[in-house]
Amino acid sequence: MNTRISTAAVILDRPKDLKGQLIKYAICGGLSTVVMVSILAILNVKYPLYVSKTQHNPEVLAYHTNVFNTIAFIPATLVAYFTNRFLVFTPGRYHFLLEFFIFTLISIISYIGGYFGCEWIIEKIESSIQIGTIQITPSLMGSATFAVSSALINFVCRKFFIFRN
Question: Helix axis angle, 138-157 relative to 58-83, nearest 10°?
Answer without folding.
Answer: 40
